[in-house]
Amino acid sequence: MGLHLTHLQILRWQSGIPTAARRPIKTSSRDYGQALPGRCENRSLTTAQPPYSMAAYESVPVFRVDHLYTHEEVYNSLGVGNAGGIRPALNGDGTVRRLVVMTAEPSQKIAGENPYHDRIEGDVLVFTAAGREGEQLLSGVNRRLTEQAVSGFPIYGFINIGSRRNTVLGKRRWRFLGLLQFFRYSQEMQPDTKGNRRGVWIFELLIHSSLQDVPVHLDATLSSRLMSEIPCLPDADREISVPESVAVSAEGAVPAEELENTRRSMLNMPPKKFEELTRLVLERTGFERVTVTRYSQDGGIDVSAYAGRTLWPLRETLVQVQAKRWLHSVGRREVAELRGSLHPYARGTIVTTSHFTRAAVLEARDAGKAPIVLVDGLDFSRLVIAACLQP
Questions:
Q1: How many CA atoms lie within 13 A of 200 on its CB side?
Q2: Are 130 and 81 within 8 A, CB to CB?
Q3: How many domains in the chain?
Q4: Do 224 and 190 have their domain in common?
């Protein structure tokens, strides 16, 4: 259930008077204007008005998830600059008061040309650090994001859902995602705006969309409460693991650029097509009776296969595969959940276009538990190339 605050609740909170056992109380449309419809994949169709009439104002006291705001309302209300994807508001001593992360829905053309664009995967915003050309550095505003784990300041997330030429949207083109929580970050190779390969930093930010209303003057308190409910990940689930096989293949027979180009193509695939590609790779590497599970009946299993004659030590062994066409990392939780979904005596595998954390690798190899095979984006790219497949 989402947490909603009425103006009366806010006044009680400030004065120390408990609100009805802290139970969420939904506000009506008369308090905040017309609410947006439920979340949908095509968010560009969302055109409802912000939570109250702002025709004559540029300051918003309460931001509400899934409502639209003007650019001016965002930076004036939150005390940040008017440019950049990561915008800090600082206290008098130079510490961060709050951060605002601004991203955008890519056009169809951009999405096709650049599969590394910022994207929302489930409740995670995958956000590329600032810097469009050359090597990105984990400094300046980029490092500010990582400081939330220690300082606990609030991070607001907004996504631009349309161009300035969209007359239906008008100036209100920035949809509020909710407060964000820094999860983890990693570095990988991507092309810059000129097509040159360079190192970039990828941040994974958890979207707290269940907190529907965020009063600006209470954002620090609300953010601290959310972060206490979902504690920081242990270090092992923040660190990305690079298997030795990937390092060897990247420097050996298959050039690193070819591996990354294959991974790039897979990131552009719809999830179901990626599952079909997984099926084809299994068939070409000695597995038989390979089937893609129906989407509504998969129970966490995407592809099932049996080891064939060429894999004679494992002949007739059932292998169940989870295919994750993700840009964000696969952690320990996903490995444990797959293990719990396996049929009796089946072997489990996770194939992803992204990476695994060190905690995921440790969980997969944990003695006393059924082992889980992990295949990351570059390793799977090598298998795709060896199978002479074109993603």
A1: 22
A2: no
A3: 2
A4: yes
CA dihedral defined by 304, 306, 310, 315, rounded to 10 degrees? Answer: 150
| Rounded CA separation 372/364 (Å) | 5
The length of the chain is 391
312-327 per-residue burial string, b: 16 or more CB within 10 A, e: under 16: eeeeeebbbbbbbbbb
Q: Read off the CATH number of the domain in which 51 is found.
A: 2.30.280.10
Q: Taking the alpha carbons of 216, 219, 222, 223 in that order, is the dihedral positive or negative?
A: positive
Domain annotation covers residue 97: yes
- Lowest pLDDT segment from 80-94, 257-271, 304-318, 339-353: 257-271
Task: Report the C-alpha gap between 207 and 205 in whole angstroms.
Answer: 6
The top-scoring range by mean pLDDT among 194-203, 234-243, 367-376 is 367-376
Is residue 357 in a domain?
A: yes
User: For residue range 290-323, what is the model confidence (pLDDT) as tens digits?
Assistant: 999 986 555 689 999 999 999 999 999 999 999 9
Query: For position 325, which CATH number holds?
Result: 3.40.1350.10
What is the residue whose two structure tokens read 């996770």? 350
Long-range residue pairs from 165-168, CB within 8 A, at least 24 positions apart, any chain: 168/47
Of the candidates 52, 29, 6, the one whose C-alpha atom is nearest the C-alpha of residue 172 is 52
On whether the CB atoms of residues 201 and 187 are closer than 8 A, the answer is yes
d(CA 141, CA 147): 10
Asked if 62 and 192 sit in the same domain, the reply is yes
H-state helical runs in 94-173: 108-113, 141-146, 148-151
Q: What is the CA radius of gyration of the chain?
A: 23
% of residues, the chain, pLDDT over 90: 56
pTM for this one? 0.74
Q: Is 55 a residue whose pLDDT tops 50? A: no
Give the model's pLDDT for residue 28. 34
Instruction: Judge whether residue 361 has pLDDT over 50.
Output: yes
- Dihedral of the CA atoms 64, 68, 73, 78 (nearest 10)? 40
For residues 68-89, b (16+ Cβ closer than 10 Å) or e, as one string?
A: bbbbebbbebbebeeeebbbbb
- Measured from the Cβ of residue 181, the count of other Cβ atoms closer than 10 Å reads 21
C-beta neighbour count of 36 within 10 angstroms: 20
Distance CA 278, CA 310 (A): 19
Tokens of 219: 């954002």
